[in-house]
Every structure is written in structure tokens, then in C-alpha cells.
Amino acid sequence: MKKLVVTDKKGCMACLACEEACSNAFYKEFDPDKSCIRIVVDKDGDPKPNTCIQCGKCARTCPAGAITQNPKGVYMINKKLCTGCGECVEVCPMHVMVKVETSPVTTKCIACGICAKACPMGILEIQEK
User: What pLDDT, in 10s, does the model give residues 80-98?
Assistant: First the structure.
């Protein structure tokens, strides 16, 4: 299974380079609300990246059947089938699915690695298990 993982849970400096890279890749602008990786504050007050864990809740919830798992284990959204209802966004346990008013479809992490390349701390990595 291919997915984005955080290799050092305490290494995030909240620079937002990962969020910027992701939102730029999907929406051609930096907007943290348009990123499929989110920097959140943990219970100790430290920043940490929230990433898609490829759990499949989004796929099981999608009424249009627009989200399916590819052979590498990554859940992908078929933009031709997506109705933009946002039900997948509601059930995402990591809160990293994105529905923007200006887009007719939802977006999610596709394990492309753009955020990992942008991270100056080197704490993000695409792994295949």
C-alpha cells in the first residue's frame, strides 16, 4: 500500500510548506483550506501534519461510487463521477478531504509526494508497504 507518512512526529515546525505545495498542486494558489495535508496542534501544543491514512471511509460513504482504491492502495476520486456532495469530507477521520465552493469536485491526497518534497524538515515520506 502506498501512502504518505510522517516519519518524525515531533519534527514539524509548522512552516506550512507542505500545505502550500499541496494547495498549489490542486488549485494553483496557496490556501491552507485547499490543502489535502493539514498542520494541526496536538494535545501537547505541538504542530503535527494530519495526512490521509487511506482508510477508505470516504469510498464507503460516497453515494456516487466516485472513490475507488487503485492497485497501489490509494483511494482516488473519479472526477467524472464525483457530484461534489461533500459526504466524504464529513466522514474523513483526519479532516484532510477538501471541498471548495469554486470546484465541482472534492479532492484528497493521492500520495503524489509533492508535500514531502516541499518539507524542509524532511519528515514526510511516501512509503509502499
Answer: 999 999 999 999 999 999 9
- Whether pLDDT at 14 is above 90: yes
> Residue 47: phi, psi to the nearest 5?
-75, 145
Residues 6+ apart with CB under 8 A from 112: 25, 126
Burial 38-69 (b: 16+ CB within 10 A, else e): bbeeeeeeeebbbbbebeebbbeebeeebbee
Strands (E) in the chain, as ranges, are 2-6, 38-41, 47-50, 67-69, 75-77, 98-99, 106-107, 124-128
- The pTM (predicted TM-score) of the whole model is 0.93
Residue 61 carries which side chain, given as an amino acid letter? T
